[in-house]
Protein 1
Amino acid sequence: MSSLASLDVAGKRVFLRCDLNVPLKNGVITDDGRIRASLPTIQNLLERGASLVIGAHLGRPKGEAKPELSLLPVARKLSELLGEPVDFQTQGSAKILLLENLRFNNAETSKDDSERKVFAKELATYADLYVGDGFGAVHRKHASVYDLPALLPSAPGFLIQAEVEVLKKLTQSPVRPYGVVLGGAKVSDKIGVISNLLSKVDVMAIGGGMVFTFLAASGKEIGSSLVEKDLIPTVKELIETARSKGVTLVLPTDIVVAPEFEIDATPTLVSVNAIPQDEMGLDIGPESAAAFSTEIKKCKTVFWNGPMGVFEFPNFAHGTKVIAQALTEVQGISVVGGGDSAAAVRALGFKDSDFGYISTGGGASLEYLEGKVLPGLQALGL
Ligand code: AMP
């Protein structure tokens, strides 16, 4: 497998797979982090005389051309950031063509290998070479991520290389103590990574909506908080594993509750032992945030994925802010894992440069830490 530097790209047409899956609100990009993260590879290829066909996805259109998931606003933003014209959907005179959302075609995400291969063959006719730089999609066995690189001379881009380098630091002899902080909505998304990391980390702190399944498994009353009841036995085993392996499992001791899931819901601070039956936990409390923060700052390697509460509602963003702040103070490597976590810390007023590294791929980095083979990395020989 070639490296980007060794690919002879001058005068060639390169199919570049990027992750441009940015958050949009009423057609306006609310966080352009993923577009910015794609720029170094794009600029390098242009400087070396290549022309580009960029393939990317937005959201989950499930094979349908949904106008609200069109990449047109991304084409405009990309052009603005590069200071270069970008053609969209059909080739014009620009050196860069951004294709429409690849997931508008069912074959991109198809589980049927032959269907995907037919689509990959069509994409291969657009270019001479392939560069894979869409880290946020490398855990997907999709046509443009997995099948296409097998059909053209290929190399990983700078973003994928940087992401893999950081993840290697977390998996191959991390400097200790090593701590992870996990939050977000669902435990089911994170069971794999929790169970794999329990044999690797020294500290694991858990917050967010997923913590209530942990609290329920510890026998606490959780009111109307988010819970995945079917996972309580699994979570009990994880708690036991943490104990037997000597991992410090940090759970909240106080919770900010509200009667409903609303931006203007009235917040009340309660002990974790006194969550009212008719209220739901929407953030970890200040005592918990301070305890999490103390543990984080003792670590030399920290990975964080998922908000500690409903940070989109200002009254329930405190826990996430405190954790983000603690990460900026780590004396060692601090990694914010995931496009959504990254967008969250930027929305809370932190700068990218405040952190050691901000990964663009939440699902991808979690699966990497879970020890899984990622199809898009495998296809690039990484
Ligand atoms: P994820 O995509 O799994 O990382 O989850 C992110 C989402 O989890 C955010 O949109 C948060 O609003 C949500 N979240 C965090 N804490 C809670 C909570 N206590 N109850 C409900 N949702 C939560």
Note: The first strand starts at residue 13 and ends at 17.
Protein 2
Amino acid sequence: MASLFDAVTLDDLKLANRMVMAPLTRSRAGAGNVPTDLMATYYTQRASAGLIITEATQVCPEGQGYLATPGIHSADQVAGWKKVNEQVHAAGGKTCLQLWHVGRISHSFFQPNGAAPVAPSAIQPAMKAYTDKGFEDCPMPRALETAEVQALVQVYKKAAQHAKEAGFDLVEVHGANGYLIDQFLRDKTNQRTDVYGGSIENRARFLMEVVRAVLEVYPAHRVGCRISPVSQFNDIDDSNPAALFGYVAQELGRLKLGYLHIIEGQTGGSRDADQRVDFAGLRAAFKQAGGRLTMVNNGYTKEMAESALSSGGADLVAFGVPFLANPDLVERFRQGHALNTPDQSTFYGGGEKGYTDYPRAAA
Ligand code: 8OZ
């Protein structure tokens, strides 16, 4: 029976344990949305995780919706990430870049030439974006033309090439939390009438094309995908999430992806209130179709994680806030040490405080 501290291999890739640092937006990128030396320090402090999934990273300028989030579309950004990877690798860690486009969860403030954000359909989210004027409503997005959707697939491929140049061990396609890919998947946000809308197969087409494009850059065992089947974070929902994500899990499995990363319940919230999707069933569907590992996420404690590995059919467990506040989380769990208290006020933006200054446990 696998324990949290057992290694796991994906072909030529060996993860030292099954504890994954979840992708966490921290809004500390530098000018030009370039990863900084401080970010390299932060990630390197956490290199004992079996895998670090770095914070969501926009694949193009239009993909940004929050201040100071890093990108992977400019040469300077690639150089910044290269430094992060060199330092984490020197400390024995493994890294995964999360490929991100926010779609309609943005504001003209972030968009080139002050344009409207783009989305599958012109449906305005009931969400606010933080701009230079404070919180403002996310505006009505512009629906992408069919040819633009196809062009965006190539943008993800280019971003994956950049990730490879920067030395990432894996990449994760962010298909969760109400951002662009999820906006295509779920029918509250997708009312298209072309090949990217309507049936489940059509709504999943953009995700599948993106994943296939990324597979031209990284081998399948080094590609993961993140989904959040019932999360309504970012004003999103679907009329039949069990059918939609059952199909998605199976199709991703058929591509033999390295892992499927599933956020159970509401992102950062209740795990149990919404019973529409059987998550164990999704994990089984992915593996049955040929997928490699499954990663569970959302509010896991050490005890919950051990039970997910021993009896829940999961292979990896992602920890967000616990890794943020405990650089040595793996060692603390191993030794049964108490955890640091996370400081919510320093989650987003700022410098070292609440970022690189959380102490390790006394030996
Ligand atoms: C919190 C704040 C900003 C972005 C996600 C990338 O939900 C995010 C995110 C979370 O996946």
Note: The mean pLDDT is 98.
